[in-house]
């Protein structure tokens, strides 16, 4: 970023520059209009009735849309219902923060309900967001219409030259946005025109589009500039799947460092914009002086002092404010000892590689689960405090909530919410209790696990890989909703890292992806593999390493499912207890499970795609390739013989999580 040289050489010139900017700021603020707003009820798609299934599904979806899970990247898609499914997409501008995004989406939902009370399909835009819903599948589909246009009323002094520069800028940004991932496809930038105002631009696609569809959508929108904004000093085109915008005013909230217009512009008075149309909002940062000074200071610091490697969090280098947050969660040891009746055997709920878990009851009647780490545990003080700091930040209805901790002498305790119905394992593999797991309940459990993993992989502030997803780590509340538990120790990596490697293999053999079990490579696709094993267990009621087969040779559930699917008899593995329920859904879950356990990790779907597969029956499932056949007795013996004692011992440890800061 280039700053005028006089800002560092002369205080009086700098003050004059600030006064100039403030005057321009107030002039533009005085002429700015209200938030851009547009909606389309799309009457051609028809109406629904007050007692229809679609209305019930839509009401549920809209009432929980922005509260269902956190919006970190401004994109949200959700479906609800099996018959007359309601589908919705929300997209916020790429620079808008989570709180503002949620407010904007809620406002748009309110607007659409008010103005389109019975329409099946609607779409609405604010300056900061877009929201749409329909009874048809709209995920991953590039849709160019209905489109909305808006432009400044004032023409550029050199319309042809200005418009071409704007188009060039937007086309350059298109490739950057299209290269984004499934969380964000957004790019913004600016371009200089000699002796003229700079042009600011931004382009964005819904991130469920492929790179090719995103590119086509944006290029089509850019081509529509001639229909709405040709020669204008600013304009925007909004489509259901993408949007573009250009302007002589900076409108991106997180770019206060944008280069200000040069002072020696010819005919400044004639070219200074006098106002926007009702469709354009000018975002001006009011405390401009503070922003400029802070930006200059930040540049100086970053140049001379900030060339450092990314740090990892440990007990020694936690930020002071985070240490304070951790300490606020601390429980008194004696209170927990009394709550668990002295950690009595009667209150013990289970035991793992790092410690035992006890049920307790606080003096106010609240039930808790206490994880008491073994004194000889390999989990050190740093790892223990990491778990507190990071897991306490996780807030999702399908994750077990960490309430606090206790740290006294050699005692280290983690206090979690108590989940009434214990683990899925105690129901699923119990010949009596599994009768309580009808198909509707199992399908809801599967959906909850998927929602929890999407939060861990994509929507939380930290990118988390669980690495020990299995039936005993899925807890069930009183309504039999799934809650993922047991996050173990954690590590932090660079935000752009997509996979990691470790020599310390920790998890449960049989659920581990082959690339992790053999080579220590892990990624979100490692969790996808574990989920694939788990969904097959839920459908079949069998453990992966104890699948019932007529063959004398021991066979894993994954192997059995693959063989049955290949023979056209996939439903043969369905739990005999499931006498009722949709056989189509059961077969679809088996198909999804086989897609998740493919040996080729690149072929495995993401958890967001899994959610789409589960909730959209019209979504065409690809044919799975051969899974990894390593979970059988022969492979287990080979693994045990090829590894040293210390590494194989790690297979019994509790779960490990890998977190990537964003």
Write the layout of secondary structure elements.
Layout: H1 6-9, H2 11-31, E1 37-40, H3 53-64, E2 75-80, E3 86-92, H4 98-115, E4 122-126, E5 129-134, E6 148-151, H5 159-178, E7 185-191, E8 199-205, H6 211-223, H7 225-228, E9 234-238, E10 242-247, H8 268-271, H9 288-304, H10 320-327, H11 333-339, E11 348-351, E12 355-361, E13 367-373, H12 381-391, E14 402-408, E15 411-417, H13 424-428, H14 439-459, E16 462-465, E17 474-476, E18 482-484, E19 499-501, H15 514-519, E20 521-523, H16 524-540, H17 557-566, H18 583-596, H19 607-615, H20 633-642, H21 645-649, E21 658-661
Antiparallel strand pairs: 1-4, 2-3, 3-5, 4-5, 6-9, 7-8, 8-10, 9-10, 11-12, 12-13, 13-15, 14-15, 16-21, 17-18, 19-20
Helix pairs in contact: 5-6, 14-16, 14-19, 16-18
Describe the structure.
There is one protein chain. With 662 residues, the protein is α+β, with helices and mostly antiparallel strands. It folds into 4 domains: 37-134, 2-Layer Sandwich (Killer Toxin P4, Chain A); 145-283, Killer Toxin P4, Chain A (2-Layer Sandwich); 320-417, Phosphorylase Kinase, domain 1; 424-661, Transferase(Phosphotransferase), domain 1 (Orthogonal Bundle), CATH 1.10.510.10. The protein is built from 21 helices and 21 strands. It has a 5-stranded antiparallel β-sheet with strand order 1-4-5-3-2, with helices on one face. A hairpin with a 2-residue loop joins β4 (122-126) and β5 (129-134). The longest helix is centred in the first third of the chain and has 21 residues, at 11-31. The chain is globular. Mean pLDDT is 75; it is low at 1-34, 255-286, 304-321, 489-498 and 630-662. Keywords: ATP-binding, Glycoprotein, Kinase, Membrane, Nucleotide-binding, Phosphoprotein, Receptor, Repeat, Serine/threonine-protein kinase, Signal, Transferase, Transmembrane, Transmembrane helix. This is Receptor-like protein kinase At4g00960.
């Amino acid at each position: 970023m280039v700053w005028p040289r006089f800002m560092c050489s002369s205080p009086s010139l700098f003050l004059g520059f600030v006064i100039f900017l403030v005057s321009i700021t107030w002039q533009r603020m005085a002429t700015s209009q209200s938030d851009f707003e547009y909606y389309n009820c799309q009457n051609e798609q028809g109406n629904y009735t007050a007692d229809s299934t679609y209305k019930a599904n839509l009401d549920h979806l809209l009432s929980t849309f922005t509260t269902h899970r956190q919006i970190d990247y401004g994109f949200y898609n959700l479906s609800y219902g099996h018959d007359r499914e309601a589908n919705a997409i929300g997209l916020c501008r790429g620079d808008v923060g989570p709180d503002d995004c949620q407010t904007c989406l809620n406002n748009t939902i309110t607007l659409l309900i008010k103005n389109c009370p019975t329409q099946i399909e609607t779409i609405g835009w604010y300056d900061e967001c877009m929201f749409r819903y329909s009874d048809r599948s709209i995920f991953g589909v590039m849709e160019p219409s209905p489109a909305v246009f808006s432009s400044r009323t004032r023409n550029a002094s050199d319309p042809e030259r200005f418009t071409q520069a704007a188009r060039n800028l937007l086309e350059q940004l298109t490739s950057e946005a299209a290269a984004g991932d499934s969380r964000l496809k957004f790019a913004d930038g600016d371009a200089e025109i000699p002796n003229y105002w700079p042009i600011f631009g931004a382009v964005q696609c819904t991130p469920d589009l492929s790179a090719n569809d995103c590119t086509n959508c944006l290029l089509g929108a850019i081509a529509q500039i001639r229909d709405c904004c040709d020669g204008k000093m600013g304009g925007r085109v909004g489509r259901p799947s993408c949007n573009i915008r250009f302007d002589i005013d900076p409108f991106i909230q997180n770019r206060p460092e944008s280069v200000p217009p040069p002072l020696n512009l010819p005919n400044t008075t004639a070219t200074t914009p006098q106002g926007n149309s009702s469709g354009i909002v000018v975002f001006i940062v009011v405390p401009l002086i503070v922003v400029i000074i802070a930006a200059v200071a930040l540049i100086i610091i970053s140049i001379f002092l900030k060339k450092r490697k990314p740090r990892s969090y440990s007990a020694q280098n936690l930020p002071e404010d985070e240490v304070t947050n951790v300490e606020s969660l601390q429980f008194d040891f004696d209170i927990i000892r009394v709550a668990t009746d002295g950690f009595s055997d009667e209150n013990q709920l289970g035991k793992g590689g790092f410690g035992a878990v006890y049920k307790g009851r606080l003096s106010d009647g609240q039930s808790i689960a206490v994880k008491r780490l073994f004194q000889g545990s390999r989990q050190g003080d740093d790892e223990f405090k990491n778990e507190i700091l990071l897991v306490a930040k996780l807030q999702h209805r399908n994750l077990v909530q960490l309430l606090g901790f206790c740290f006294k002498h050699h005692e280290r305790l983690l206090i979690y919410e108590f989940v009434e119905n214990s683990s899925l394992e105690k129901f699923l593999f119990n010949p009596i209790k599994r009768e309580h797991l009808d198909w509707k309940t199992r399908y809801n459990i599967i959906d909850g696990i998927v929602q929890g993993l999407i939060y861990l992989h994509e929507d939380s502030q930290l990118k988390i890989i669980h690495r020990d997803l299995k039936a005993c780590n899925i807890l069930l509340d009183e309504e039999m909703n799934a809650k993922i538990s047991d996050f173990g120790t954690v590590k932090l990596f660079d935000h752009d890292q997509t996979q990691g490697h470790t020599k310390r293999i920790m998890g449960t053999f049989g659920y581990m992806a082959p690339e992790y079990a053999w080579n220590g490579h892990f990624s979100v696709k490692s969790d996808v593999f574990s989920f694939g094993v788990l969904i097959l267990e839920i459908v079949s009621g069998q453990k992966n390493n104890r699948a019932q087969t007529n063959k004398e040779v021991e066979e894993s559930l994954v192997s059995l499912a693959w063989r049955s699917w290949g023979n056209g008899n996939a439903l043969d593995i369905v739990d005999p207890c499931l006498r009722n329920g949709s056989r189509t859904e059961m077969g679809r879950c088996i198909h999804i499970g086989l897609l998740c356990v493919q040996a080729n990790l690149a072929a495995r779907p993401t958890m967001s795609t899994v959610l789409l597969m589960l909730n959209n029956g019209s979504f065409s499932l690809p044919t799975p390739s051969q899974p990894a056949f390593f979970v059988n007795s022969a492979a287990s013996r080979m693994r045990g013989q090829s590894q040293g004692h210390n590494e194989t011992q790690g297979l019994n440890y509790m779960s490990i999580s890998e977190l990537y800061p964003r």
